[in-house]
Amino acid sequence: MIADELVWLAAIVLLASTVQSALGFGASLIIVSLGALRVPIAQLLPVLVPLSCVATSSIVVVDRAHVDWRLLGRRVLPLMAPGVVLGAVLADRVADDAARRAYGVLVVFLAAHALWTLLRPAAVVAVAAAPPEAAAPARHARAGDDVCVALAGLVHGVYATGGPLLVYVVDRLGLSPRVFRATLAGVWLSLNLLLTVGFVVAGRLDLGTLTCSAALLPSLLLGLAIGHRVHTGLDRRTLRALVLGLLLVAGVSLAR
Q1: H helices of 162-235, where?
Q2: Which of 132, 175, 139 is nearest to 25 (CA)?
């Protein structure tokens, strides 16, 4: 990887890690969407995924008491992990543009509907009048939500960006901002460790990719610090609006 590509990626990693630390997701989407403008995705992912492991492990260690381990271990990981493995195997065979665009359209539809529901006047009054427990969606998974989570695992295996579908489902659970961020960090850490092992086995992760990852580490750490300061000032409704807004932007980017 040449020097100007590293400078480009360093700026993107700073932005992405800030968003990741503040909201709990978004780093992979930002890095893949913007980084792929200069660096092929196949070359980008072995550099990105180890960095993501560093970022998410720092959140999990600091906020381990806020991770919803039951949600993580009983629902999310069992549904996503098989898809990640399958997606990693199929990564070289997927019709890249068509699959990415179809995924983006789905994310735009889901995020736009949820954002409209959140911001319409009736929803604002209802959220303001109801206690947090009443405003939160039911915690029992619907079949459609489980399909979204499983599909998120498949997409994560191909692009390392399965976040939008999972975030759409987790957002509906009404978690506090800190639990939301910590639990998602636990998901990404678990799945990206799995991907890292796969990259090593496939020979895609080597000394060259690790050197590039190390060169981007200062940008990552600075972004994590900035994002943590932003996160501490977020209330639940603001968090939902930011999450859904980012999902909408990401979906449009993927669908182009």
Answers
A1: 163-171, 177-202, 207-231
A2: 175
For residues 111 and 244, the answer to whether their CB atoms sit within 8 Å is yes
Per-residue model confidence (pLDDT) at position 210: 92
The Cα–Cα gap between 172 and 247 comes to 14
pTM: 0.72
Under 8 Å CB-to-CB from 101, ≥6 apart: which residues? 254, 255, 256
**Residue range 235-239: mean pLDDT, rounded:** 71
Whether the CB-CB separation of 51 and 127 falls below 8 Å is answered with no
Distance CA 160, CA 157 (A): 6
Instruction: Report the distance separating Cα 56 and Cα 144, nearest Å.
Output: 27
Any idea what DSSP says for residue 100?
A: H
The C-alpha atoms of residue 161 and residue 150 are separated, in whole angstroms, by 13
Residue 63: domain span: 3-255
Higher pLDDT, 111 or 82: 82
pLDDT of residue 236: 65
Total structural domains within the chain: 1
Q: Which two tokens stand for residue 239?
A: 């968090």
